[in-house]
Specification:
By secondary structure, the protein is of the alpha/beta class. It is built from eleven helices and 15 strands. The protein has two domains: 3-234, P-loop containing nucleotide triphosphate hydrolases (Rossmann fold, 3-Layer(aba) Sandwich); 252-339, 2-Layer Sandwich (Alpha-Beta Plaits), CATH 3.30.70.260.
Length: 340
């Protein structure tokens, strides 16, 4: 199912009567049958936006369309029916502790008054899909964080939704469990032809799972594009900050010097395996010092990243940088804080 947003606005009033403009003139087109990322720092408006897109709240103004049908103005009964085509998973799982794993998955089917035999069959299918068929009768308190999220995913899929919203679904999980949950979501998306919208502050989630992404800052969309474009041609300071955190905090990119690093080099595809810097040092009277480096494996290509310093007389440094650009290397100056 395709999602289209037009000029969405949402303002909240705080307890001290001040206003927070959480969603500010947001327009987006989310294609059907992909995993779409919405990324931003805390307070950027991500969760407010997903509440509007998922019909949990109405916008102050603007429009939400599912497959060219306006849905933000639905009346009560129509809204209930539309929401049954939506699945939601959250950071804190939102499972019922008084129920077993299977009973949690069955809950939305019971609400819809499905026949008992149909419920039992569907629960078995979903537990098998998320790899927890043997934990059907387990109390929720006995499950690990990753297992709880798998049960939450199974429950979200109970009514065969067309859209699945994931609001910080991996934020409470360790890196290994996060990877397994993301792989599960990718497999489910392909198998069920879902439109998956992932709300996150983790660039590694965008890198490992999403095909397209929108970057939010202060309630506005500041950058939109494919994940490859975002990694190879970041346009805004916000996006560059996310990428700089990847350099510091995730496997695949390792920083072994906290000082320096004026330039960020990005090598795409075949360039990741070429001795570009070695050729650079032979061709120009410069020296380079690598501060960080590694390779990010994206869905359609690899992007190598290096954070380096180039030293020498200014004219030679300028020529060296131009040489890099001429040979297909993307060069940008690092953020000021990286030079501290």
């Amino acid at each position: 199912m395709q999602i289209k947003l037009e000029k969405l606005e949402k303002t909240y009033t705080t307890q001290n009567n001040s206003s927070v403009h959480a969603v500010n003139d947001i327009s987006l087109s989310i294609p059907e049958n992909i995993i779409y990322g919405i990324i931003g720092q805390s307070g950027a408006g991500k969760s407010s936006l997903v509440r509007l897109i998922s019909l949990l709240e109405k916008p102050d103004s603007g429009f939400v369309y599912y497959d060219n049908k306006r849905v933000d103005n639905l009346v009560h009964n129509e809204l209930i029916l539309q929401r049954r085509q939506i699945g939601m998973i959250f950071q804190n799982f939102n499972l019922l502790s008084s129920r077993t794993a299977a009973k949690n998955v069955a809950y939305p089917l019971e609400i819809c008054k499905k026949p008992k035999e149909e419920i039992e069959k569907r629960v078995v299918e979903l537990l098998d899909l998320v790899g927890l068929k043997d934990r059907a009768n387990a109390p929720i308190s006995t499950l690990s964080g990753g297992q709880k999220q798998r049960i939450a995913i199974a429950r979200a899929l109970a009514n065969n939704p067309s859209i699945l919203f994931c609001d910080e679904a991996t934020s409470a999980l360790d890196p290994q469990t996060t990877r397994s949950i993301l792989q599960l979501l990718k497999n489910i998306q392909k198998k069920m032809n879902l439109t998956v919208v992932m709300i996150t502050h983790q660039m590694e989630v965008v890198r490992d799972a999403c095909e397209q992404v929108a970057v939010l800052d202060e309630g506005k969309v500041v950058e939109v594009g494919s994940v490859e474009d975002l990694f190879s041609h970041p346009k805004t300071t916000v996006t560059k900050e996310f990428l700089s955190h990847l350099t510091e905090n995730t496997e695949g990119l390792v920083r072994w010097s906290d000082k320096g690093g004026r330039y960020i080099l990005r090598f795409i595809g075949e360039k990741t395996g070429e001795p570009v810097l070695s050729n650079l040092a032979k061709k120009f009277d410069i020296e380079y010092n690598i501060r960080a480096g590694g390779i990010q494996h994206l869905p359609t290509d690899d992007i190598g990243t290096m954070v380096i310093d180039i030293t020498g007389v200014p004219q030679e440094c300028t020529k060296a940088i131009e040489y890099l650009k001429e040979n297909g290397v993307l060069v940008e100056e690092a953020l000021a804080k990286e030079n501290a």
